[in-house]
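A brief tutorial aside. Many learners find it easier to grasp structure tokens once they have seen a single protein encoded end to end. The record that follows does exactly this for Chitobiosyldiphosphodolichol beta-mannosyltransferase. Read the sequence first, then the structure, and try to relate runs of similar tokens to stretches of the chain.
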Amino acid sequence: MAATCVALLALVLLLPVLLLGAWKRGWQAGSASHVVVVVLGDVGRSPRMQYHALSLAQSGFSVTLLGFYNSKPRDELLQNDSIQIVKLSELPSLGAGPRVLQYGVKVVFQAVYLLWKLVCTEPAAYIFLQNPPGLPAIAVCWFVGCICGSKLVIDWHNYGYSIMALVHGPRHPIVLLAKWYEKFFGRLSHLNLCVTSAMREDLAENWHIRAVTVYDKPASFFKETPLDLQHELFMKLSRTYSSFQSCSEPLDPGMERSAFTERDCQSGMVRSLHGRPALLVSSTSWTEDEDFSILLGALEKFEQLTLSGDGLPSLVCVITGKGPLREHYRQLISQKRFRHVQFCTPWLEAEDYPLLLGSADLGVCLHMSSSGLDLPMKVVDMFGCCLPVCAVNFKCLHELVRHGENGLVFKDAEELAAQLQMLFSKFPDPAGKLHQFRKELRESEQLRWDESWQRTVLPLVTHK
């Protein structure tokens, strides 16, 4: 009797969805040029999916982008008439009860909510979905595709279950269930994209999913920042962050000075300050797959070398981003007593982030892939700005960073400290290794995202 009641209730709830889907399927003829892009996360912190939406719009598609709107996307996205952003609402934390129950309620809410949003959206030829997070989005998007005649495209950035395993452990029942879910519903997609050849091979061998590798490429706005724009950025940041403020006022009142640059207000000429600190940048989501204790340990050793008179510069270390472990590491940083290293942990506007990368002297990446199969997009953006990078090593990092050619890889704080010492020795000597890496990045033939997308993804969605 109870089972019959549950079945009737499910039918009553699903009937409107099925009827709406059937009606939309009849409307499908006009949907060939429409694509829905789904991000069950913050759109502003999902650059690859923003790039997909922009590329689809530039290729003649109308795009509906569904996602959370916690941070502002790029202006190009907001100003494009072919892109409509549909903001999703997040379920507030229950704040009580077992964690498993809270997670279950959240998944059910997101499934019903996303289902309703999708069936109320104009029918589409394709649904582009970012994974992770794929629970419950993969199943919902597949179901909507079945009733509305849309083809599901999954862009595999990583495996969701492997990220969950960082918190719960690999044998936790929730992790095992998530892995089964991801594998089962992932096979139901029509087209799969992934970020590395290693992931493509793993999907084929262990998941029986055929995917096309679409490497992340920097967008056109990731480039070296001219000195006058560097000065404007530094002055803007100096109003909020002391690390960017000049240690001394200029003798000439007609001069404007930051910690790194000086501008003659009359002529507008900008120059780098003699003896300025080096600018080190690291961007992060402040999650378990990035161990910032490695960077802190390396900078402590760097501080000791600086005090011993090794001809090393002072450092300003800027760590950008938002995430759950941000406050934890900010507290650790506040407990350190550095004299020659200053820290700054801003959340930058979307337009300022490329300018910062294009102004920096060195990038550091601490991303340790939970699956060992994805690549850090932050390094791609740094390379687009011709910014040399030191990156912590893992399984497939060689597909992006070639040690000694376009950057350096390290395994622990000791190695990173030695690399910082080598790169910043006699800074800013143009004959140093830091400048050699930058020169090699400038001279390298590097595709931009638009070119790469046109070559790889566009033929798939127009001929599939």
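Self-check: The mean pLDDT is 87. If you spotted this yourself, you are ready for the next section.
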